Structure formats: structure tokens, C-alpha cells
Amino acid sequence: MASSSMTVAAAASTIVVSSTTRPSLSSGFLKSRVAARNPLKVARASGGRTTCFERNWLRTDLNVIGFGLIGWLAPSSVPAINGNSLTGLFFSSISAELAHFPTPPALTSQFWLWLTLWHLGLFITLTFGQIGFKGRTEEYF
Fold first, then answer.
1. Could you read off the pLDDT of 21-49 as tens digits, one per residue?
2. Element of type H or E holding 59
3. Dihedrals φ, ψ of 43, to 5°?
4. CA 3/CA 106 separation, integer angstroms
5. How many CA atoms within 13 Å lie on the side-chain side of 19?
């Protein structure tokens, strides 16, 4: 290498090797080197550190919890399972398991089915309630 820099061109890419600098790759597909700005960075939030979420990311609201609980208790109290409601079956299984309190429920007990279904429905209702309530208050829709 007699010269201080050598250029190799291949498929719209250029590698420039210089004796004083390290190799850099430039391409027709890449834009100029500009420092990327973080749109999520809030100035001086959390002591100057960059965070991905807002400080109050959960934005709790008791309206969502109250209406979500009522919104789940109403449909789960409809007697749709052999004349019984899901809430009634869950609460009766709780009382049946408390009858032999020191002994935990067996794995084959209906308690686990009603517990899982009742809480799954509650958490789904609360999640959609949070999305809907906050989406409406922040004018997403």
C-alpha cells in the first residue's frame, strides 16, 4: 500500500481504510450519521436518566377498579351453568373448602376451576376497562 488511503467499491458500498482512522462503512441505503433522538426521553424525569416509560405509567384510577368489578360481578352472577352462576359456584366452593380448613383443597377439586375462571374473567374485564377508560379520557378514541 503506497498511498495513505485505499477505496474499495462493491455493490453500492464503500469501505474507506485510512492509516489514521478506523474503517467506516457507508452505503447508499444509509443516511448521514446523525445522533438519533429518543422521543420517549423526558427532560429531567427520574434524575436525568433516560427512561422508556412515563413516571406514572400505571395511571391508577379507582373508577376503573369499581366499574370493572361491578362489570364482572353482573355477568358472572347470571345463572348460566346448570342453573347456577359462576360467582355462586365459586363462593360455594370456597365455603366447601373452608369446611375442612387446615387441609388444602385437592387438585381434583372444582374449586380450582371456578377460581381460575372467575379471576380470569375479572382480570380481562379490568384490563379492557383500563384500556377503554384511559383511551377515552386521553382521547385515543
1. 655 666 666 555 655 565 555 555 555 56
2. none
3. -60, 125
4. 82
5. 5
